[in-house]
Amino acid sequence: MEWDWEFVRQIMPTLIEGLKITILATALGAVVAAVIGLVFAILRMTAPKPIARATSFIVEFIRGTPLLVQLYFIFYVLPDVGIRLPALVAGVIGLGIHYGTYAAEVYRAGIENVPRGQWEAAKATNLTARQTWIHVILPQAIPPMIPALANYLIAMFKETPLLSAITVLELMNQAKSIANSNYRYIEPMTLVGVFFLIMSLISVVFLRWLEERYSRVEQR
Amino acid sequence: MKLRDWMAMAAGATALMAVAAATPATADENKLDELKEQGFARIAIANEPPFTAVGADGKVSGAAPDVAREVFKRLGVADVVASISEYGAMIPGLQAGRHDAITAGLFMKPERCAAVAYSEPILCDAEAFALKKGNPLGLKSYKDIADNPDAKIGAPGGGTEEKLALEAGVPRDRVIVVPDGQSGMKMLQDGRIDVYSLPVLSINDLVSKANDPNIEVVAPVEGAPVYCDGAAFKKGDEALRDAFDVELAKLKESGEFAKIIEPYGFSAKAAMSTTREKLCAAK
Fold first, then answer.
1. Averaged over B64-74, what is the pLDDT?
2. Which of residues 235-274 of B touch A (CB under 8 A)?
3. Residues of chain B contacting residue A204, judged by C-beta atoms under 8 Å apart
4. Model confidence at B26: pLDDT above 50
5. In A, which residues are within 8 Å of B192 by CB distance?
6. Among the listed ranges A8-22, B9-23, B44-58, B255-269, which one has the minimum average pLDDT value?
7. Residue A87 contacts B where some CB pair is shorter than 8 Å
């Protein structure tokens, strides 16, 4: 089997269509994960006991089951109770909730790592709860979180091909459909790999930059 | 790691891939002897009854594997080992040497004939639609789906129906690739797709299993001819294909062929009244 540049040129536009959906799914999934993660973390740390317990259980449950199973559930089972989501929305929600539980743990660890003395000092200097969070706790909690969150973002990006199982026409699915009609896997699959590699490398560079920037704030 | 190191790694990986890609595939001269020695032939199937089916106990049946098993037995290959594959992945899998033959109801179409060596026809069937009761969108052909901007069709990835829909001009985003029969029915029931298209016998099998009064079948689809499949072999394995054909012809003549496929609902006469040449030349 030989590499055919002509074929590459021919399939590029289709793959780029798929790449757009992949990036869109990752971006939306990241937003959902960030928000849901925060909600989970806050519920677990500050809500009354029974709610905090229930939240812990849900988080453990979601973390302990495979994303693919969750996607199938959202896509194929929820319509039975009348919730019919379009494929991409189902995918984004699946990714968002799954990675939200991981993000929740990161948030929790970040916040709990702020020394108790900081809370006490804030109280002693008569800061309000709002001031305590914004000026004392979060500026110390967020920078250590960034590398961990970034890892999850890249992991999530690389998990998006799972969405092809619920008929989202993302990069992997487009490549499969090209391979299906041309009986060639080498070019489409290599290009999928290359696209993912390029995107991951770019995100790594960007996240390094973010990390440095935030650590500088901390030192200031 | 610095950016430059990353780039070097990427370049190294690309070079490796290029080397792997350049290694030529060797064609086997005595494929049949090899299979005899091995004791089994690896076939690709799709789990789409009645063409191919895998029972709850893991036993492979269906008309296509049954015919293949019988023919291979007569060739001196004791058994067949089946692996389930997506339609679109079968031909690349065959070319990559993962299967020795495809016996899955992969209908002969000119572009497939160009990619693989087909045996003489085995199973023939027309195309059908499963859709909501009363056919609310009035869909009777692939062209009707192309003309209705709201109609979405589900079909197996890389299957004949997907190709027919795309050829009829249905845009890619309205051709939903359905992973398997059950998901297809579910998506139809949930209203994610308006039409689920498969060969007549497969649709009938699924619809009768689903037992849903809100689903009806349109068969045959207007403008789509009757297609026949054959066992597909790798290009270069023509000797094996020819040996397969000889035994298949004997099987057809003795009437045993009809005995195998007719309980599944296929017509032996349809397969025997046409040839590979005709089907491969057909538009």
1. 95
2. none
3. 6
4. no
5. 79, 84, 87, 167
6. B9-23
7. yes
According to the model, what pLDDT value does residue B189 have? 93
| Spatial CA neighbour of A177 closest among A194, A163, A195, A189 | A189
> Given A1, A165, A167, which is nearest B25 (Cβ)?
A1
Query: Scanning every residue of chain A, which has its alpha carbon at the shortest distance from the alpha carbon of B2?
Result: A205
Q: Where are the domains of chain B?
A: 31-124+228-268, 127-218
What whole-number percentage of chain B has pLDDT above 90?
A: 73
- Which CATH number belongs to the domain containing residue A151 in this structure? 1.10.3720.10
Contact A32, A93 (CB under 8 A): yes
Q: What is the DSSP letter of B121?
A: -
Q: Measured between CA atoms, how close is A210 to chain B, in angstroms?
A: 15
Nearest residue, CB atoms, B21 vs list A173, A179, A186: A186
For position B179, what pLDDT does the model report? Answer: 86
Task: Report the alpha-carbon distance of residue A41 to residue A102 in Å, rounded.
Answer: 10
The CATH number of B127-218, from 3.40.190.10, 3.50.30.40, 3.40.50.1360, 1.20.1050.10, is 3.40.190.10
pLDDT at residue B19 above 60?
no
Total structural domains in chain A?
A: 1
Report, as an integer, the average pLDDT of A159-188.
90
Percent of chain B with pLDDT over 70: 89
Q: Under an 8 A CB cutoff, do A167 and B176 touch?
A: yes
| Record: contact B21-A79, CB cut-off 8 A | no
pLDDT above 70 for B223: yes
Residues in contact with B4: Cβ distance below 8 Å, sequence separation at least 6, in sequence order: none
Closest residue of chain A to B159, computed from CA coordinates: A180
Structure tokens at A96: 């968002």
CB contact (8 A) between residue B88 and residue A3: no
Containing domain of residue A184, as a range?
5-219
CA-based nearest residue to A72, from A146, A162, A145, A149: A162
Distance from CA of B21 to the nearest CA of A (A): 6
Q: Does residue B208 carry a pLDDT above 70?
A: yes
Q: At A214, give phi and psi (nearest 5°).
A: -70, -35
Whole-prediction pTM: 0.80
Kind plus residue range of the DSSP H or E element containing B130: strand B127-132
| Alpha-carbon span B79 to B93, nearest angstrom | 20
Smallest Cα–Cα separation from B161: which of B118, B131, B111, B195?
B195
> Was domain B31-124+228-268 assigned CATH 3.40.190.10?
yes
ipTM of the complex in this document = 0.74
Q: Is residue B252's pLDDT more than 80?
A: yes
State the pLDDT confidence band at B23, using cuts at 50, 70 and 90: very low
